[in-house]
Amino acid sequence: MMSVVGAQPFIKPMQTSPSVSPGIQRRHTLPASEVRPLNTQDAISVFEIEREAFISVSGECPLHLDEVRHFLTLCPEFSMGWFEEGRLVAFIIGSLWDQDRLTSDALTLHKPCGSTVHIHVLAVHRTFRQQGKGPILMWRYLQYLRCLPNVRRAVLMCEDFLIPFYRKSGFKVLGRCAITVANLTFTEMWYPISGHAYMRRNSERTGCLISRIIQLD
Known about the structure:
By secondary structure, the chain is α+β, with helices and mostly antiparallel strands. It is 24% helix and 22% strand. It has a domain at 33-156: Gcn5-related N-acetyltransferase (GNAT) (Aminopeptidase). A 7-stranded mixed beta sheet has the order 1-2-3-4-5-7-6, sandwiched between helices. The chain is globular and about 40 Å long.
């Protein structure tokens, strides 16, 4: 079984210059921007963003609220949320899979012995779209996966109009996906993780501990 103890993607808040005079105390201590793993307390915020992002476009959500809670309970270390002043603005939820191609079981199962990360959903709050947050968060997520020695690739399924978006992040088309939802069909895409052996060795040498820090630009 893959061990990810101490490898969760805790990310230091972005440091910003004080915007108030020294004599005025801050009214809150929330970081201006941070990325961290999601937990079940974030589930409602996750689902609200997901529902708004997908229902209007395809009529279906990749994950329903109970499924969001399911994966954030089983494998929160394969999730990542971007927060602005404590507010969730973008997120990714994934789980492990143990087969070459996705099947319907991949929609609900987490396979701890698998070497493939199935990315279930990437979504950005409507207020923060067209700012590049989706690609940035995906890049950081893939960087994090390179710290996990047993992960060999990431896969996802998407509608055809999203293929160019994921290609820009380095994903390649694997073929038509065997999964259909209602009348929707999907393309399966993959991203190689195993090609980064040098980075993996460095990560293993440093342990990829919880204290591993990645600063937001």
